[in-house]
């Protein structure tokens, strides 16, 4: 089942395709795991919601932040744009690997 996989995972997929493949996406509704090449695991943007605003009262379009996409991530700078009442569109200055829902 899909609970055995994580975005960015390479090992333990049980596939022999002659080249490394990685988990790109997990689709719980259809119990599907999408695989692809390493470069496909990177993204330059994401939309985040349910924000924990401990040090920032308000986000303004164009604000620059250091964003962490998972616990062990050192952080990557991004610019933000409001995407909704409590959501932001983040555009990273460098591609970020294996962005996964529910992290950081």
Return the domain count.
2
The total count of helices amounts to 0
CATH architecture of the largest domain: Beta Barrel
Terminal residue distance: 24 Å
Using only C-alpha atoms, the radius of gyration works out to 16 Å
Total strand segments: 6
The largest sheet is: 4 strands, antiparallel
CATH level-1 class of the largest domain: Mainly Beta
Low-confidence stretches: none
Mean of pLDDT: 91
Strand order of the largest sheet: 3-6-5-4
> What kind of assembly state do the chains in view correspond to?
single chain
- Here the CATH topology of the largest domain equals Ribosomal Protein L25, Chain P
Order of helices and strands: EEEEEE
Structure description:
The protein is mainly β. The chain has two domains: 2-39, no CATH class; 41-97, Ribosomal Protein L25, Chain P (Beta Barrel). It has no helices and six strands. Strands 3-6-5-4 form a four-stranded antiparallel β-sheet, with no helix packed on it. A hairpin with an 8-residue loop joins β4 (64-67) and β5. The protein is elongated. The mean pLDDT is 91.
């Amino acid at each position: 089942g899909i609970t055995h996989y994580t975005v960015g995972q390479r090992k333990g997929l049980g596939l022999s395709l002659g080249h490394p493949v990685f988990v790109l996406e997990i689709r719980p509704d259809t119990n599907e795991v999408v695989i692809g090449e390493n470069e496909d695991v990177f993204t330059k943007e994401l939309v985040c919601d349910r924000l924990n605003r401990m040090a920032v009262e308000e986000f303004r379009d164009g604000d620059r932040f250091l964003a962490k996409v998972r616990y062990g991530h050192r952080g990557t700078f991004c610019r933000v744009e409001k995407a909704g009442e409590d959501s932001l569109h983040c555009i990273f200055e460098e591609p970020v690997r294996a962005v996964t829902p529910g992290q950081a």
